[in-house]
Design brief:
TIM Barrel; 3 domains; elongated
Length: 757
C-alpha cells in the first residue's frame, strides 16, 4: 500500500455537480506561472501566487493574492481573509486550488491554479433542499467512480459558517483545497452536513478540515470519520484486505476472554517472535510455547482454555499521555481508525491490514472478536484542546452544563452527547462500520451508563439486523455526576443488550473499592447476591440470562489473586495462605461457570495473574501489566480447573439457558426451593434439563465457602438419590465415583454431581 501512487502529474478539477444538471459549471482551472509584475501587483485573471508568510498545517509558508483588488492576506491556518465581493464572502473560501508546494526561500516563485465555483443563490437553495430530502448522506470520505470518471467525496458535520478540506500529498507535498457546500438546514444544535466532491482519486493523501465559526477560524481538524490516522492526521485510504467470515455461535455459548493487545504477548515468555510481541500480529502466531516447556501461550492458550470470544481492550486510535509506549486506550482520539502502535509494519496502511489479519486468524480458529469501545468521552478538552469532534460541533457532540463547562460523567474531562441527532448518528454508524470493514462480532461499551437508552436501542437493533448473533453489552454505570439519566442496570430489560453483573462480582469478593469489605469467598457472606447471579439476574434486573455477564475480575480494579492476597493481610494470620487463594479462585470459576448468563474471564485469571497489588494499572506500563507465562507453568492445576469448568459449561446446555422461563423451570435452590437444610456459608442448587438437549438429566452444584469441610444432603433426582460425582474439592473426577443421600465437601471448595437421562 505504502503512501499511495503519486498524483502530481494529474490535473485536479472539481467534480461535476450531481444534484442539478442545470447548475452552472465553472471553467477548468487555468495554470501558468505568474509574471513578476503580476506577483507584485497581485492583479491577474484566474491565477494566484503562493509566495509569502502564512503558515498552513503542512508546515509550508504561503499566502494567497486575489485578483479582485490585489488585496493580500496571510490568513491564520492558511485561510485567506477579508477578500471583497465574492471571494468566499470575505472568508477566503469559494475556491478549489491545487498548489505546487515549495519551501520558503528555496524558490523565488511558485504557481497555483485557482477556480471559483459559482452557483446562483436560488439554485444552491434548491440543491440544499434536494439533498436534505434525499436519503442519508454517509459522512466521511467516499471514492466514487461513474462512467470512467473518478471522484472523491468529503462529507462532515459541523457547526460552522464555512468549511474547507485541505489535502496534502505526502511525497510531492502538493496541496488541494476545496470548499464544502452546506447540505440542508441547520439542526437544533446549529450544525449541518457539509459536502464536496473533487475530481480524482486521492488514495494515500493526508487531509484535514478548516472551519470558520462566529468569526473565528479553526484549522487542522481531524475528520472523526477518518479510517486511518498517522502523524496526527487523517488519510484517504481504501484497504481491500479480506476478513474471514465469523464462526457460527449462539450468544448463550459465549465465553468471553478479555485481553490487552500489548499485555498479552509483550513479555518474552510468550514465545511470540520479537517483531510481533505486543502487536496485532502477536495474536496470530500459533504453536507458541514458554521456552523449554510445552506450556501453550498466546492464541494457543485461549484455544486450550476453551474461551470462544476474544474481547480486546480499545484498539481505536487513542492518546498516550503518560507513557509513549503504554496505555490502556481509554482516552480515544479517533473512533474509526485502528491504533497504529499495535502494527508491526511501518507502512501507512499497516494498522488496518494487520488488525484485519488478526480478526481473520481468530475467526479461523473458531473465535469471535468483540471490541471494547469508549464512546462516552474523548481526549479533547474544552475550550483549548480541540482536535476533532469538539472542534467541529461542540454543542452537538458533547453535553454542556448551564455554566458552559462540559459535563464529566466519565471522570475523564468531558461527556459524549449520544442523545443528540449528530451524536446518535455518529455512534450508530461507527459501530456498524467496524462490523462491515473488520468483521467485528460485538461490542463492550465502556461506561455504557452515559449512552442514552434510545441510542443503545437503535444501535442494537441496527447491529442485529446485520447479524442477530452480534454481542452487545457494557458497563451499566457512569463515572460521576452526569448530564443524562444513567442508563443503568435494569434499563436494558428486553432490549437486546447485556450488562456486567457487579452484584455477583461483589458478592464473591467484596466491594471493589473497599478492601475491608468481604463476600462469599472470604467470609461466606453476601450469598443472596451470588444466588441472584446464578439465575442470570432474572430476580433482580434482567428479563433473561443473556442480559447478564457474570464475572469475578476484569482489567479494572484488583485481579482476584491480588485482591485475595491484600485481604489476607487484614485477616488473622494463616486464614488465607497461597494454597487457600488457589482454592478460592477455583471456587469462583466453578460458581461462574455454572451460573446462567454469559461467562466473562480476564486474561491471566485462569492461572492467578497478579499486577503487583495495584488496582488501576492503566499507566503503570509493561512491568506491572505484562502477562508472565511462567505463571501458567507454576499454576497449571488452577489453569486445568478453569479449562474443565469451561468445557463442562460448553458441553451441557443446562448451564446456559436462554430464557427466564427455562431458568424458573430448571434451576432450584436446595434450601429456598426444595427445603433442604444447608450448612452455613454455602449454596446448593439443582438443574434439570429444560431444553431436552442435554445428556445429563439433572445436576447438583454445591459451593462451600466455609473454611471447614461440610456435609451436604442431596436431593432426589431423576434416578433417586444415586449421583455421579463430576467435580469435587477442586478437581474433576474421572473414576466413576458416586454419592448417595449426602456428600462431604472440603472447605472453600465445591462439587458437581449429575445423573444421566
Amino acid at each position: 500500500m505504502g503512501s499511495g501512487r503519486p498524483l502530481s502529474a494529474r490535473r485536479v478539477e472539481p467534480a461535476q455537480p450531481v444534484m442539478s444538471a442545470a447548475m452552472e459549471r465553472s471553467p477548468a482551472p487555468v495554470r501558468r506561472r505568474a509574471s513578476r509584475r503580476e506577483r507584485r501587483s497581485g492583479v491577474w485573471s484566474g491565477v494566484v501566487t503562493a509566495n509569502g508568510s502564512a503558515r498552513d498545517g503542512s508546515g509550508l509558508d504561503r499566502r494567497w493574492v486575489c485578483e479582485c483588488s490585489g488585496a493580500t492576506r496571510g490568513g491564520k491556518n492558511g485561510i485567506v481573509r477579508n477578500m471583497p465581493h465574492g471571494c468566499g464572502a470575505g472568508k477566503g473560501f469559494g475556491k478549489i486550488a491545487r498548489i505546487r508546494s515549495y519551501m520558503l526561500g528555496a524558490h523565488n516563485s511558485s504557481w497555483v491554479s485557482l477556480q471559483r465555483t459559482t452557483r446562483p443563490a436560488p439554485q444552491r437553495e434548491r440543491m440544499n433542499r434536494a439533498m436534505s430530502e434525499s436519503s442519508k448522506i454517509t459522512e466521511g470520505v467516499r471514492y466514487l467512480e461513474e462512467g470512467g470518471a473518478e471522484r472523491t467525496r468529503f462529507t462532515v458535520y459541523a457547526e460552522a459558517d464555512a468549511v474547507q478540506v485541505r489535502l496534502v500529498h505526502p511525497g510531492t507535498r502538493e496541496v488541494v483545497l476545496s470548499e464544502l457546500e452546506s447540505v440542508g438546514r441547520a439542526d437544533a444544535d446549529g450544525g449541518r452536513l457539509w459536502k464536496t466532491e473533487i475530481a480524482g482519486d486521492f488514495h494515500g493523501w493526508a487531509y484535514y478540515y478548516e472551519i470558520e465559526r462566529e468569526g473565528k477560524q479553526l484549522g487542522e481538524i481531524v475528520d472523526p470519520w477518518a479510517v486511518l490516522i498517522r502523524h496526527g492526521r487523517g488519510w484517504v485510504w481504501r484497504d481491500e484486505t479480506p476478513v474471514e467470515p465469523r464462526p457460527a455461535m449462539r450468544p448463550e455459548e459465549a465465553v468471553i476472554y478479555e485481553l490487552h493487545i500489548r499485555d498479552y504477548t509483550r513479555d518474552p515468555s510468550s514465545g511470540v517472535s520479537p517483531r510481533q510481541r505486543g502487536k496485532y500480529l502477536g495474536l496470530t502466531e500459533r504453536g507458541t510455547r514458554l521456552e523449554g516447556t510445552e506450556v501453550r501461550t498466546g492464541l494457543d492458550n485461549i484455544i486450550e482454555l476453551g474461551a470462544n470470544v476474544v474481547q480486546v481492550m480499545p484498539v481505536h486510535a487513542f492518546s498516550m499521555p503518560y507513557d509513549p509506549d503504554y496505555e490502556w486506550g481509554y482516552m480515544p482520539n479517533d473512533y474509526n481508525a485502528p491504533h497504529h502502535r499495535y502494527a508491526s509494519a511501518t507502512d501507512l496502511g499497516a494498522p488496518i491490514r494487520e488488525l484485519k489479519e488478526m480478526v481473520s486468524t481468530l475467526h479461523k480458529a473458531g473465535l469471535r472478536v468483540t471490541l471494547d469501545v469508549v464512546y462516552n468521552h474523548d481526549a479533547e478538552r474544552w475550550p483549548n484542546k480541540l482536535r476533532s469532534l469538539m472542534a467541529l460541533a461542540p454543542r452537538a457532540y458533547f453535553r454542556f452544563q448551564k455554566d458552559g463547562t462540559p459535563w464529566d460523567g466519565s471522570a475523564c474531562g468531558n461527556e459524549f452527547r449520544s442523545d443528540s441527532e449528530a451524536g446518535r448518528r455518529f455512534l450508530v454508524e461507527s459501530v456498524k462500520y467496524w462490523v462491515r470493514e473488520y468483521g467485528i462480532d460485538g461490542y463492550r461499551f465502556d461506561l455504557m451508563g452515559l449512552i442514552d437508552q434510545e441510542s443503545m436501542r437503535i444501535l442494537t437493533r441496527e447491529l442485529h439486523a446485520m447479524d442477530p448473533t452480534i454481542l452487545v453489552y457494557g458497563e451499566p454505570w457512569a463515572g460521576g455526576p452526569c448530564g443524562i439519566e444513567v442508563n443503568g442496570k435494569g434499563k436494558q430489560r428486553g432490549l437486546g443488550w447485556g450488562v456486567f453483573n457487579d452484584d455477583i462480582r461483589d458478592g464473591l469478593r467484596g466491594r471493589v473499592f473497599d478492601l475491608d469489605d468481604h463476600g462469599m469467598l472470604t467470609r461466606g457472606i453476601r450469598l443472596k447476591d451470588v444466588k441472584d447471579g446464578i439465575v442470570g439476574g432474572i430476580r433482580t434486573f434482567t428479563d433473561g440470562p443473556l442480559e447478564c455477564l457474570n464475572y469475578a475480575e476484569c482489567h479494572d480494579n484488583h485481579t482476584l489473586t491480588d485482591r485475595l492476597q491484600l485481604v489476607a493481610r487484614r485477616m488473622p494470620e494463616g486464614d488465607i495462605d497461597q494454597e487457600q487463594i488457589v482454592r478460592l479462585s477455583k471456587l469462583a470459576i466453578l460458581t461462574l461457570a455454572t451460573s446462567q448468563g454469559i461467562l466473562f474471564i480476564h486474561s491471566g485469571q485462569e492461572f492467578g495473574r497478579m499486577k503487583a497489588g495495584e488496582d488501576n494499572t492503566y499507566n503503570l506500563g509493561d512491568v506491572v501489566n505484562n502477562i508472565r507465562w511462567t505463571d501458567k507453568r507454576d499454576h497449571s492445576d488452577l489453569f486445568a480447573f478453569h479449562r474443565n469448568c469451561i468445557t463442562m459449561r460448553r458441553v451441557h446446555p443446562m448451564f446456559r439457558l436462554t430464557t427466564s422461563e427455562d431458568i424458573e423451570q430448571s434451576v432450584r435452590f436446595l434450601d429456598d426451593d426444595l427445603g433442604i437444610k444447608l450448612p452455613e456459608k454455602s449454596i446448593g442448587f439443582m438443574l434439570e434439563d429444560a431444553t431436552g438437549r442435554d445428556e445429563w438429566g439433572c445436576a447438583v452444584v454445591l459451593l462451600n465457602a466455609d473454611t471447614q469441610e461440610r456435609n451436604f444432603e442431596l436431593p432426589e433426582g431423576l434416578h433417586g438419590l444415586m449421583w455421579h460425582i463430576e467435580a469435587l474439592d477442586g478437581r474433576f473426577v474421572r473414576n466413576g465415583a458416586t454419592a448417595e443421600q449426602s456428600i462431604r465437601v472440603s472447605g472453600r471448595s465445591g462439587a458437581v454431581l449429575r445423573q444421566r437421562k
